[in-house]
Design a protein that fits this description.
Shape: globular
Function: Destroys superoxide anion radicals which are normally produced within the cells and which are toxic to biological systems.
Distance between the termini: 38 Å
Helix content: 40-55%
Subcellular location: Mitochondrion matrix
Radius of gyration: 18 Å
CATH topology of the largest domain: minor pseudopilin epsh fold
Number of strands: 5
Strand order of the largest sheet: 4-3-5
Strand content: 5-15%
CATH class of the largest domain: Alpha Beta
Number of domains: 2
Oligomer: single chain
Pfam families: Sod_Fe_C, Sod_Fe_N
Number of helices: 8
Structural class: alpha+beta
Order of helices and strands: HEEHHHHEEEHHH
InterPro entries: Fe/Mn_Superoxide_Dismutase, Mn/Fe_SOD, Mn/Fe_SOD_BS, Mn/Fe_SOD_C, Mn/Fe_SOD_N, Mn/Fe_SOD_N_sf, SOD_C_sf
Catalytic activity: 2 superoxide + 2 H(+) = H2O2 + O2
Largest sheet: 3 strands, antiparallel
Length: 234
């Protein structure tokens, strides 16, 4: 049992630091399972930038599906490890990466958003604001770059503002499908992640992804991003 517990935890750790608060340990089996996090605001709180219908479906259906399938894959992994089934272990890696990544990314995404009445869209001040100007030119330049890279991303994926902890420098990256930012480098910490899967915008914006990318900045939670930046830089 101890060996299986260690393997399960190492597998989770490889997916990044986003897996922590939601986890609860099933002591009888030593298996880590995950649950859907609550949103810190109502589904309609981000309107008109993001509709209540999209938020409810995105959270209750899409994110919940990632959590459900992630837990299922982890249980199957533990069983495969117990049986010494190396082939099954290898086959499960893609499901763990995809669904675990979906859980990580969406858990960050909900924190990256905030109603306008609670400060959503207000530009960052202090050290993060200075870093954006220094590393990326200006807030306007950052928005233009992330919007351009998000719109140009073929298929499904994410566009990120991240912190390179090794160089203490901000970076803009994209990841495919549900790959977390950490897959682009173990030293990268996500500050802002924007979901550019169709399920994040299509019901409201149809096929005009650039309009979604333009409007989402009105509800970006820069306070949260600043808190993460300060923590990681000190």
């Amino acid at each position: 049992m101890a060996l299986r517990t260690i393997v399960s935890r190492k597998t989770l750790a490889a997916l990044g630091s986003g897996l922590r608060a939601e986890a609860r340990l099933a002591a009888s089996r030593g298996l880590v399972t995950f649950s859907l996090p609550d949103l810190p605001y109502d589904y309609g709180a981000l309107e008109p930038a993001i509709s209540a219908e999209i938020m409810q479906l995105h959270h209750q259906k899409h994110h919940q599906t990632y959590v459900t399938n992630y837990n299922k894959a982890l249980e199957q992994l533990e069983d495969a490890m117990a049986k010494g089934d190396a082939l099954a272990v290898v086959k499960l890696q893609s499901a763990i990466k995809f669904n675990g990544g979906g859980h990580i990314n969406h858990s960050i995404f909900w924190k990256n958003l905030s109603p306008i009445r609670e400060g959503g869209g207000e530009p960052p001040k202090g050290s993060l604001g200075w870093a954006i100007d220094t590393d990326l030119g200006s807030m306007e330049a950052l928005v233009q770059r992330m919007n351009a890279e998000g719109a140009a991303l073929q298929g499904s994926g994410w566009v990120w503002l991240g912190l390179d902890k090794d160089f203490k420098k901000l970076v803009v990256e994209t990841t495919a499908n549900q790959d977390p930012l950490v897959t682009k480098g173990a030293n990268l910490v996500p500050l802002i992640g924007i979901d550019v899967w169709e399920h994040a915008y299509y019901l409201q914006y149809k096929n005009v992804k650039p309009d979604y990318l333009k409007n989402i900045w009105k509800v970006i939670n820069w306070k949260y991003a600043s808190e993460v930046y300060e923590k990681e830089c000190h």
